[in-house]
Amino acid sequence: WGVCLLTLGWMAYGEASVPENLEKSIEELKVHYIKDDSELHNAHPVFLRVLKDIKVNLEEPEQNLLMSIIMDTYSRIFIRMEKDSQDEATKEKLAHVQEHLKKLQENYFPGKSAELKTYAETLWAIKEDDPVVQRKALFELKRVYREAT
User: Fold this and answer.
1) How many angstroms separate the first and last alpha carbons of the chain?
2) By three-state DSSP, how is residue 72 classified?
3) CA distances in angstroms from 54 to 48, 66, 118, listed in the order given
4) Distances in Å between the alpha carbon of 109 and those of 56, 79, 99?
C-alpha cells in the first residue's frame, strides 16, 4: 500500500499543484502506512513507469484514457485500504483522497468515465481461452478490422 501512496504523492507533486487539504491527507496517510519499507525502493514502481511512458509515447486522448484507468485503480486500492483499516481517522482520510481522485478522473472524461469503465471492464472480462469466444472473435474479425481502419 505504501508504494501506491508514495506514487500518488509523487504524481501529485509533478506539474500541477495539490490542494493543501489533499496534500495534508496524503502526508498523514504516508505516515500511517509507510514505515521503513525497503520494498518502496526496489526499482519496480506501481504507476510511475507507465506514467512516464504514456507522456512520451501516446497522444493526449490515449493519455487521458490511461490516466482515467490509473485514477480508477487508485480508487480501488484506497477502497480496499479503507475496508481493511480499523482506524476511523485513517478511513476518513482515505475517503477524502478518493473524493479528490474521483473529481480528477471526471476531468479526464467529463461525464463519460463510468461509461468508459464499463466498456473496459466488459472487454477485460472476455475469456480468451473459451473456444466459443475464440470462434465468435474470428467470425467478427473482418468487421472489427474495417472499423479500426
Assistant:
1) 41
2) helix
3) 10, 8, 22
4) 21, 21, 16
User: What is the torsional sign of CA 36, 41, 44, 45?
Assistant: positive
Summary count for the chain: helices (H), strands (E): 7, 0
For cell 478522473, what's the residue?
105
**Is the whole-model pTM more than 0.70?**
no
- Write out the DSSP string of 2-62: HHHHHHHHHHHHSSSPPPHHHHHHHHHHHHHH-SS-GGGGSS--SSHHHHHHHHHHS-HHH
Per-residue confidence in pLDDT tens, the chain, 149 aa: 554 554 555 454 445 688 899 999 999 999 889 877 777 777 788 888 888 888 888 888 888 888 888 888 898 899 999 999 999 999 999 999 999 988 887 776 666 667 777 888 888 889 998 888 899 889 888 888 888 78
In 88-123, which positions are buried (b, 16+ CB within 10 angstroms) versus exposed (e)?
eebeebbebbbebbeebbeebbeeebeebeeeeeee
Domain chopping of the chain, boundaries: 2-110
